[in-house]
Predict the structure.
Amino acid sequence: MFELTSIIGLSRVIEELRSLIKVVGPSDATVLIMGDSGTGKELVAKALHGCSSRNKGPFIPVNCGAIPRELLESELFGHRKGSFTGAISDRKGRFELANGGTLFLDEIGDMSMDLQVKLLRVLQEREIDPVGSQHGIPIDVRVVAATHKNIETLIQQGDFREDLYYRLNVMPMEIVALRDRREDIATLFSYFADLYVRDNQSAIRLHPKSLELLLQYDWPGNVRELSNLVDRYSALYAGQEIDLRKVPASMVPQGIRSISDSQSADALHLLIGGLPDQAGEAQIPPVMVTEQAELQLSAAAEEASQDEVQKVIMLAQGGSDIPEQGLQLKQHLLEIERSIIKKALGQAEGNVSKTARLLNLQRTTLIEKINKYGLSDSP
């Protein structure tokens, strides 16, 4: 029996999903599961099967989007020998294989209109017609369908039959995307870390700052993406603590790298913005870290990453190497330039000519940079 506890998460929406599975599972009602790719629709379908009286029977999955259109009918309903070129023997379809159990039709939104008509008839008559057969075969199958598409939109576009939608949507279930239940990320990471333990090593662990990065990431691949990421790090760093800031950039999703780079840029911005004003017409000095600047930075550093702030300070002083995973040099330099220009504008009370003298820039060059960084409204 498939364990319901495999639906992982402590969030309210996951608790409600598990409760709904317990209620819907024992019935024979057709279920339509909706949710983004990677949210675990097949996992929910297996849980429904496991909670039903059919759990001793087969659970047969079929991805309607992965099988060529011309082969899907035979795949679902079977065929008879000689019914088409290559049909050298009788073959049972997925419906017949699932007899007495559950058939999971994944990505139902990708099914062609002609097959939708045949599927509707099967759901109504509880009988299949194998390709090339003259006689129908009665079936006893519970159908659970799933899609990541908006079926109602497909109906409006003429790409999905409304009557089939109502036949499938007897019991609708929706799985919330991971970005909308971020409180489950730490629990899921621990679950997958235990699942992917290798060679009697202990499970990998997550550095607190890395957890912050995962919590800010939007997870376009949902739980599947998180699972694959933990599998990757379990292979690369078995038994170790994972600090994403020290992992090679190629091994970190682009979105997480961008968040980390943004935090570094914010730390640079705090560092530069915290420097004391220079009196008179003196030119703004190059980026340096003085004792006074460090004191001014410490309060803001409570919310920023301490490690990132220390890294920026040491880099500015020339006392640290560039991290192995690299950094976005161009972005950091742009942030430095923008912050210095903004500070100079403030010091010059918005006077562009005075600001240009402070920065030893041509006035026209400064105006271009002010427009580039959107600083035209700065005091």
About this structure: Residues 32 and 172 are 5 Å apart (CA to CA). Strands lie at 31-34, 59-63, 102-106, 127-128, 137-138, 142-147, 171-174, 205-206, 241-242. The chain is about 45% helix and 10% strand. Residues 275-306 have pLDDT under 50 and may be disordered.
